[in-house]
Amino acid sequence: MAAFYHFIFLMLFISPALACDRCIHQSKAAYYYSDSALSSGACGYGSLALNFNGGFLAAGVSSWFKNGAGCGACFQIRCKNNDLCSKSGTKVMLMDLNTNTHNDFVLSNRAFKAMAKPGKDRDVLKLGIADVEYKRIPCDYKGKNLAVRVEESSRNPGYLAIKILYQGGQTEIVGIDVAQVGSPNWTFMSHNYGVMWDTSRVPNGPLQFRFMVTSGYDGKTIWAKNVLPADWKPGVIYDTKVQISDIAQEACSPCDNTHWK
């Protein structure tokens, strides 16, 4: 397992000379006529999806979706029509994969309208597709910790499938280990899809987790020491009692040192 983590660290490494907390990207964004499409998105949030981020949601292209590791990432997006759009734009959470390579994002109806100046939301919707600039920003869940939802397919003991919720910071989770509380014997969980992880070798008893995340120029491990009780049950959301606040670096030049307000 140590060798695996070392490999991941090397793969994630970005030269400090090129690394930025934020890069500004140029593209286009469209919107969903019905936001219900996001509740069946590739991230696997299901019926929980529309409750996140006040409904300010988006589907992102594969370079941001990252085979599901990018699910839950947050972005600030503003359209470049100065007559119709505000300077602050809108802040969205990535919920789905956008397969249309002509625009980087498809926004929820609410998020697309939020790019507008006061009274201009209908005019912005009439654009259909807008030229935008955007940057990744940290997610802030206002006091909520990282949480895991035990999926209905789980069986105690034997098989555990979890869904990752409320991931803060500006990172991706790229690995998860699980072990009985107090045990040094860790089991590697498989990334199923989106925010879904599972293992058919789940230990008995109360469970602890290690989350491997991108951070800084490489990565780090965050240890949640007591998450699931011995009698954990499917369908329940459990608080990890930890949160991720790290910033993963991007490679770009020059970096964005401004705040859009």
Can you put this structure into words, describing what you see?
There is one protein chain. This protein is mainly β. The protein has a domain at 20-137: Barwin-like endoglucanases (Beta Barrel), CATH 2.40.40. Helices cover 10% and strands 37% of the residues. The chain has an eight-stranded antiparallel beta sheet.
Key features?
261 residues; mainly beta; 6-stranded mixed beta barrel
Write the layout of secondary structure elements.
Elements: H1 2-12, E1 19-20, E2 25-31, E3 57-60, H2 62-65, E4 74-79, E5 90-97, E6 105-107, H3 109-113, H4 121-127, E7 130-137, E8 147-150, E9 158-165, E10 173-180, E11 187-193, E12 196-202, E13 207-215, E14 218-228, E15 237-239, E16 250-251
Parallel strand pairs: 2-6, 3-5
Antiparallel strand pairs: 1-16, 2-7, 3-6, 4-5, 4-7, 8-9, 8-15, 9-12, 10-11, 10-13, 11-12, 13-14
Brief account:
By secondary structure, this protein is mainly β. Helices cover 10% and strands 37% of the residues.
Termini distance? Answer: 44 Å
Low-confidence stretches: 1-14
Helical fraction: 10-25%
CATH topology assignment of the domain at 20-137: Barwin-like endoglucanases
Determine and state the CATH class of the domain at 20-137.
Mainly Beta
Strand content: 35-45%
Oligomer: single chain
Largest sheet, order of strands side by side? 14-13-10-11-12-9-8-15
If you average the pLDDT, what whole number results?
90
Radius of gyration: 19 Å
SS-based class: mainly beta
How does CATH name the architecture of the domain at 20-137? Beta Barrel
- The fourth-level CATH homologous superfamily of the domain at 20-137 is RlpA-like domain
Largest sheet: 8 strands, antiparallel
